[in-house]
Amino acid sequence: KQEVTQIPAALSVPEGENLVLNCSFTDSAIYNLQWFRQDPGKGLTSLLLIQSSQREQTSGRLNASLDKSSGRSTLYIAASQPGDSATYLCAFNQAGTALIFGKGTTLSVSS
Amino acid sequence: DAGVIQSPRHEVTEMGQEVTLRCKPISGHDYLFWYRQTMMRGLELLIYFNNNVPIDDSGMPEDRFSAKMPNASFSTLKIQPSEPRDSAVYFCASRLAGGFGELFFGEGSRLTVL
Questions:
Q1: CA–CA distance, A107 with B5 (Å, rounded to integer)
Q2: A42·B108 Cβ contact <8 A
Q3: Nearest alpha-carbon partner for A103 in A23, A29, A30, A34
Q4: How confident is the model over A43-90, as pLDDT tens digits?
Q5: How far is B42 from chain A (nearest CA, A)?
Q6: Tens of pLDDT along B93-106?
Q7: Are B107 and A98 a contacting pair at CB < 8 A?
Q8: How many CB contacts within 8 angstroms connect chain A with chain B?
Q9: Cβ-Cβ contacts under 8 Å, B104 against chain A
Q10: HEC states along chain B?
């Protein structure tokens, strides 16, 4: 069964700290890996998408990497801000199939 | 573009009643997905469509659940009869077939079955 594991489940950091969120998946034959953000009571917002041929993607203070051989992805957030507080979800899919999601890491950034 | 639009945003109903959730995907998107989110199980795929045709409905929990996509701009998820354990947030999402395949979500429909 394909699974996505995210560690830690929750994380609290002071403002300004750099942090890494981890995601591991069971299937190396991935097509896409996508990181999302979810605010309480809201839908999911796509942050970064990494195709299987890529190793990383960057958007502003966010950097996501993909290592298919080890079945891991990381989301790096630089200089964290209170506005970054949210749940971050990782998901992957094979070609033409639906995304399979982890349960997320809930991040709290204190000012 | 208005994004993926879901209705209703909130639904409270009593056990045994029929519930219909609605979704309008982003115009031009070929794939439509229905997910359910609970604290215990996270986000679970229920069913997805490609060009209005159901591709994988293995995640639909029981025969009480059904989904349709009569055209490219509308889909429904129906629960009949509803049960308290169906209480969850139901999300609809859509994406293009090719390119990056980035998935876009609606705001969700929060269902409470009493």
A1: 27
A2: yes
A3: A23
A4: 999 999 998 889 999 999 999 999 988 999 999 999 999 999 999 999
A5: 5
A6: 999 876 567 889 99
A7: no
A8: 45
A9: 46
A10: CCCCEEECCEEEECCCCCEEEEEECCCCCCEEEEEEEECCCEEEEEEEEECCEEEECCCCCCCCEEEEEEECCEEEEEECCCCHHHCEEEEEEEECCCCCCCCEECCCEEEEEC
Question: Which residues of A fall within a CB distance of 8 Å from B50?
Answer: 96
Q: Is the dihedral of CA B103, B32, A89, B112 positive or negative?
A: positive
Contact A98 B102 (CB under 8 A): no
Report the 3 state secondary structure along chain A.
CCCEEEECCEEEEECCCCEEEEEEECCCCCCEEEEEEECCCCCEEEEEEEECCCCEEEECCEEEEEECCCCEEEEEECCCCHHHCEEEEEEEECCCCCCEECCCEEEEEEC
Distances in Å between the alpha carbon of B10 and those of B20, B61, B113?
12, 21, 11
